[in-house]
Amino acid sequence: MIRQAVYYDEIDAMIYPYWYGIRFEDDDVDWSEETFYFDVTAPFERIKTTDLDDSLMSVSIDSAEILKSTLRPNRLGISLSRIKARALEQDANVHYIRQFILLVADVEECLLLNNQRW
After folding, report:
1. What is the pLDDT at residue 73?
2. What is the maximum alpha-carbon separation in the chain?
3. Distance (Å, whole) CA 85 – CA 116
4. Whole-structure pTM value
């Protein structure tokens, strides 16, 4: 089951979202596909950054690996082909990955770009 959460820092009693995490099981992501799509919908589960489960194999997602959906404004994609290429460079098996970590700022920027007219 896919679980999405926002990891945050708390400074002077203010909450600052930092990471957007997508946790999944192996069969939740079809690695034969080019793109993994997900809907960004609030409310989000909130987890402190210090509580990130570092026992899971995670991969951080670069802003260039985030794709925008032209059909659904709150849907984003992650380029699995780029993740697979990076994993091969590190001699890693993508089937052990259990979490994608994105910067909240990158997610917000992609969603904002979806709402702009060119």
Report:
1. 85
2. 45
3. 31
4. 0.90
